Amino acid sequence: MVARSLSCQGEIEIAIEHLRNADPHLARLIELHHPPTFDSFQTPFLALTKSILYQQLAYKAGTSIYARFIALCGNEAAVLPETVLALTPQQLRQIGVSGRKASYLHDLARKYQNGILSDSSIMNMDDKSLFTMLTMVNGIGSWSVHMFMIFSLHRPDVLPVNDLGVRKGVQLLYGLEELPRPSQMDQLCEKWRPYRSVASWYLWRFVEAKGAPSSAAAVAAAGMSLQQQQQEQHMQQQQQQSSQFIDQIGGIMNLRACSWGQ
């Protein structure tokens, strides 16, 4: 069964009320920020294609390549599996898409063409099945799937356990001495069910408001090891990517999403 979408009327208010009652620490954080909105719409295939194109790129570079990709296809409505499969690796390289990313795009399109995936099946899969199916696509890992589920499908109960921003937020929220491991996150955040997506959104805002060291020197001054510096830099990159998903990866056009079990 697919849970009620966060884009449904009144769902954010219900989620916030639940989180306030479930966790006093999070309740204080909620008071500091405006509520999130989940109201953008794109087809799953377009959103997944965009997520591949933006991987490991700065916002400006990703936007430029995406614009050239759309021009190559014709328009956003023309970004379909058959259109992507018709593009050669050379054509994609000419607009700045690496050979590896071209193979990822083609693998996604082939899985659509072969019937393994479709927009309708993605919209109607439960979270566990969806995670399993999407991570079968080359180049789409757990972090990308979690971001897609939150910011494109507006699924309410997704916890990105591998996202360093969310893990850092949990550490700060509860005053933990160490960054929680991904394996610890489910237990620490259990009380937020069934609205862990919304809680994660507030943690991103929390970490952004706290700020992060702007240079390796600042990190070193804080007494961090080289490994910790690298981890911190990785976290900042993922935070930037998370923000890009909020602005750049749209949702899905699914009028049935506002009914329970549809």
TrEMBL record:
Any one GO CC term of the record: nucleus
Boundaries of every HhH-GPD domain copy: 53-208
Alphabetically ordered keywords of this record: DNA damage, DNA repair
GO BP, one annotated term: DNA alkylation repair
GO terms assigned for molecular function: alkylated DNA binding; DNA-3-methyladenine glycosylase activity; DNA-7-methylguanine glycosylase activity
Source domain of life: Eukaryota
Transmembrane parts of this sequence: none
Family (UniProt): Belongs to the alkylbase DNA glycosidase AlkA family.
Protein name, as recorded: HhH-GPD domain-containing protein
Organism: Nepenthes gracilis (Slender pitcher plant)
Organism taxonomic ancestry: Eukaryota, Viridiplantae, Streptophyta, Embryophyta, Tracheophyta
